[in-house]
Amino acid sequence: MTQLDLQGNHLTGASAAAASAYGDALRQLSIYAGDPLAVADRLVEDEPGFGMAHVLKAWLFLLGTDAKAAAAAREVIAKAEALDLDSREQGHIAAINHLIEGRFHAASRVLEGVAAEHPRDLLA
């Protein structure tokens, strides 16, 4: 069965439990509470085919300015690139790759496109 997040976005490779945990992580991120990275870690470990779990984890690494975090994001996103993802999920991956490479304007343009097509995507 296809899983959707709380905003109605498709979640490739997610079980119902993973979709619920993903929603919890987004809530934690949006109110700066809890540990959304720990949730993302568990999701990537338990559900390696869940594309947005990888995307969430990479974005969380990139929220800071630590160069080691960018390397960790690159490692996470490399696994996601091997998955059969939809265009929204691929857009996140493209934006993350641009950001990792220091192409900030390109990252923002790609993410703007994702947000325009999927205005309820909380990560976009």
Written description of the protein model:
This protein has one domain (3-117): Tetratricopeptide repeat domain (Serine Threonine Protein Phosphatase 5, Tetratricopeptide repeat, Alpha Horseshoe), CATH 1.25.40. Helices cover 66% and strands 3% of the residues. It contains 6 helices and 2 strands; from the N terminus they run ββαααααα. It has a two-stranded antiparallel ribbon with strand order 1-2. Helix 3 runs parallel beside helix 5 (87-100) and helix 5 (87-100) runs antiparallel to helix 6 (104-117). It starts with a strand and ends in a 7-residue tail after the last helix.
Helix content: 55-70%
**What is the number of helical segments per DSSP (H or I, 4+ residues)?**
6
Using the coordinates above, name the CATH class: Mainly Alpha
Taking the sheet with the most strands, its summary is: 2 strands, antiparallel
The CATH architecture can be named as Alpha Horseshoe
Relative strand content: under 5%
The helix-and-strand class reads: mainly alpha
Which outline best applies?
A: globular
Q: What is the CA–CA distance across the termini?
A: 24 Å
Integer count of domains:
1
CA-atom Rg in angstroms: 13 Å
What attributes does this structure have?
mainly alpha; Serine Threonine Protein Phosphatase 5, Tetratricopeptide repeat; two-stranded antiparallel ribbon; globular
